[in-house]
Amino acid sequence: DAGVIQSPRHEVTEMGQEVTLRCKPISGHDYLFWYRQTMMRGLELLIYFNNNVPIDDSGMPEDRFSAKMPNASFSTLKIQPSEPRDSAVYFCASSLSASNNEQFFGPGTRLTVL
Amino acid sequence: RKEVEQDPGPFNVPEGATVAFNCTYSNSASQSFFWYRQDCRKEPKLLMSVYSSGNEDGRFTAQLNRASQYISLLIRDSKLSDSATYLCVVTSYGQNFVFGPGTRLSVLP
């Protein structure tokens, strides 16, 4: 298995633009997680899905952020409009179950908003 | 108080040294505990789970103290390749992973 796949790996955009991050989880994993990592705040859970259904989005910073999982093999995290404070590394992770199984992380998308 | 707190880093140790990290958690209902390792500019990866009785994996030993709500990671005979950030992770039933801020380790030649 190729592991969790994320694209793009790097994204540089200007303030106000829409940004879409993509993730393909490991086949057979029922859970998909989106995280954001910054030096100041560390690794923060934004949202997670179980069987394509959003379960907890309390970590989504504000309405500018939205996430979807239209099928078991694809998820997107969208920021519209983007702001400089959104600059971070965004990780997608997947796991077989919720709290007691290993989460496998993708390589991350490094987002820079100018 | 943050849910998961870790020793501030960085820890700079010589090769061959023994180093220990602590992590404290605030939720007494926490059930599962892990240590993840994150190399510079890479994704986090599971290092080891932490079991109630403590567990060892080669040079790595993890301990859990539920009464005091902390877990620890001991690395013996440290190698240059151990240089990384070590993330403590705590979960509760029905909740998801809460990551600590991480402790950076640099093993020096």
Q: What low-confidence regions of chain A span 5 or more consecutive residues with pLDDT below 50? A: none
Q: Structural class of the secondary elements of chain B? A: mainly beta
Order of helices and strands of chain A: EEEEEEEEEEE
Helix/strand structural class of chain A: mainly beta
Instruction: Specify the helix fraction band of chain B.
Output: under 10%
Written overview of the protein:
Chain A is mostly beta strands and 114 residues long. In chain A, 0% of the residues lie in helices and 54% in strands. In chain A, the strands form two sheets. In chain A, strands 2, 4, 5, 6, 9, 10 and 11 form a seven-stranded mixed beta sheet that branches. Chain A has a four-stranded antiparallel beta sheet with strand order 1-3-8-7, with no helix packed on it. The mean pLDDT of chain A is 94. Chain B has 109 residues and is an all-beta fold. In chain B, 0% of the residues lie in helices and 57% in strands. In chain B, strands 2, 4, 5, 9, 10 and 11 form a six-stranded mixed beta sheet that branches. Chain B is globular and about 45 Å long. The mean pLDDT of chain B is 92. The A-B interface holds A 33, 42-43, 45, 48, 56, 91, 98-100, 102-103, 105-108 and B 31-32, 34, 42-46, 87, 91-102.
